[in-house]
Design brief:
Elements lengths: L4 H10 L2 E11 L5 E5 L3 E8 L2 E5 L2 E5 L3 E5 L4 E6 L5 E10 L12 E4 L7 H10 L5 H44 L6 H7 L4 H12 L3 H19 L4 H7 L5 H12 L3 H14 L1
Antiparallel strand pairs: 1-8, 2-7, 3-6, 3-8, 4-5, 4-7, 6-9
GO molecular function, one term: DNA-binding transcription factor activity
Protein name: AraC family transcriptional regulator
Keywords: DNA-binding, Transcription, Transcription regulation
Length: about 270
């Protein structure tokens, strides 16, 4: 299953979860490594400090506000990388029904704006861990699900904000580099976003596909040059990012309904008569 917030949320929404264990642990500065032999998958909630979490071949940087989902297949190696104790609370859970499509065996980070989103409730859940009886079990389950909901909503909101920021950065990048050889493939590589996803997010943000935005921005810039600058059509084409002036002319006409020379003539007449 693809690792997206939509899929992560769908996984937890449909999973039949049984909370198995809750405990608090820390990794101090002097003895910087802690190892946890996981019996089930779970979530690590950082409370204080920062650490690298090694699980299998992957390595994750965690700190308060970054909740780490780990699986039951690997030993969790936690390496303190800060200048204070790394403190965290772990919740371990099991599923009553497994499918090949679930994320029980997956490892991923949920990035939140702040640890305050889960801090109070995770301590409340920890305090309920030793309480006996069916009612206590129900309270633990409800508290855990409440924490999950808060964390997932906060992670989704954080991702949405990050996406908007990234799209604004891409718009700014295009406006600075429009006269260079740029296209959606190059931009996708630069911002480490899958090409089709970038195109989808960019169009959702601006109303235009990346290539259309680049084209319209170049044409807009060339209009100003045609109106004001004493440059040939070929020079203007090169100035706005087109090596082939004939291709530029075709693009310009498609966008404006007239050729660059006709546009220049019309604007020159307008300026002369004004």
């Amino acid at each position: 299953m693809e690792m997206t917030m939509m899929n992560i949320t769908a996984y937890f929404a449909t999973a039949t979860i049984a909370l198995k264990n809750v405990f608090q642990e820390s990794t101090n500065i002097e003895n910087s490594f802690t190892h946890i032999h996981t019996q089930s998958s779970g979530l690590l909630f950082p409370i204080k400090g920062s650490a690298w979490v090694h699980s299998g071949k992957e390595k994750f940087y965690v700190k308060p506000g970054k909740v780490f989902h780990f699986n039951n297949k690997e030993v969790l190696h936690i390496e303190n990388c800060g200048d204070e104790h790394f403190e965290f609370i772990v919740t371990q859970y099991e599923l009553s029904n497994r499918t090949n499509e679930d994320l029980y065996d997956a490892q991923f980070l949920l990035r939140l704006a702040s640890e305050e989103i889960y801090l109070q409730k995770i301590y409340e859940l920890l305090s309920l861990q030793a309480a006996p009886g069916a009612m206590a079990e129900m309270n633990r389950k409800n508290k855990f699900l409440s924490i999950l909901q808060d964390v997932l909503e906060a992670a989704r909101n954080e991702q949405l904000h990050a996406t908007v920021d990234t799209m604004e950065q891409i718009v700014e990048y295009i406006q600075k580099h429009y006269n260079e050889k740029i296209n959606v493939t190059k931009i996708a590589e630069l911002y480490a976003i899958e090409r089709r996803r970038l195109a989808y997010l960019f169009e959702k943000h601006t109303g235009l596909s990346p290539n259309t935005y680049i084209t319209e921005y170049r044409v807009s810039k060339s209009k100003s040059l045609l109106e004001r600058a004493e440059l040939s059509i070929a020079e203007i084409a090169e100035t706005v990012g087109y090596e082939d002036c004939f291709y530029y002319s075709r693009v310009f006409k498609k966008q404006t309904g007239m050729s660059p020379s006709a546009y220049r003539k019309e604007k020159t007449v307008s300026w002369t008569n004004s």
